[in-house]
Amino acid sequence: MTQGSQGDGGRKGRGPRSSPGPTLSPSVDLDRNLPLEHPLRLFLAEHALMRRLADELDEYCSRLARNRGNRIENLAKIRGLALELQSASRAHHRREEEALFGQLRARGVHGPPDVLETEHDDFDQLEADLVRLAAELQLAPQADPTALFQAASSLIALSRSHIHRENEVLFPMVLELFTRDGIWDEVQRVSDTIPSSTSEDES
Fold it and tell me: Contact 123/117 with Cβ under 8 angstroms?
């Protein structure tokens, strides 16, 4: 777990206080410029869901740190949000790896997908850690929550920075490179084989 670990030692017993994640720059406002049926719209919708879950996770960790509300209920909410984020991110990362990254590597682009896949592994570890730590604290609610706060802070920071890099770098890159006839049909075909959490969330 290399993400978001710096500075945690000086914040023992305190919840995440991450600043809000960066928004899309005006020059790369994909949501505004993409056609309504473009395959990347689902990727953006999944990012919006993941960012919302990370923001809610930040809020409930802060409530726990400040003793606001019922401690058991806050821990249950944290664990539930961690499970939701785990489910949403796994589907989204699989979609990227299967529908986009292979196409990039076929065009000789290896650096960005390699870095992002490594971060996908970091997501898996941090989410699993957070689910476990929240469950343990539910059984012993008066135990020290420092490890939970550190895992949550790292996961929140990773979520925001990762989504920002993909919105600002990955998606504009694939729009520039994927110009061959039929390539977006292939992206859509692969994407359609992977369930998304967004339709359930929006219903």
Answer: no
Q: pTM of the full predicted structure?
A: 0.82
Angle, CA of 130, 136 and 137, to the nearest 5°: 90
Compute the distance between CA of residue 168 and CA of residue 27 in angstroms, rounded to an integer. Answer: 9
Q: What DSSP designation does 180 have?
A: S
Q: In 3-state terms, the chain is what percent helix, strand and coil (to 5)?
A: 75, 0, 25
- Which one, of 47, 59, 43, 56, lies nearest residue 23 by Cα? 47
3-state DSSP of 60-80: HHHHHHCCCCCHHHHHHHHHH
Fold of 35-193: Four Helix Bundle (Hemerythrin (Met), subunit A) (1.20.120)
84-97 residue pLDDT tens? 999 999 999 999 99
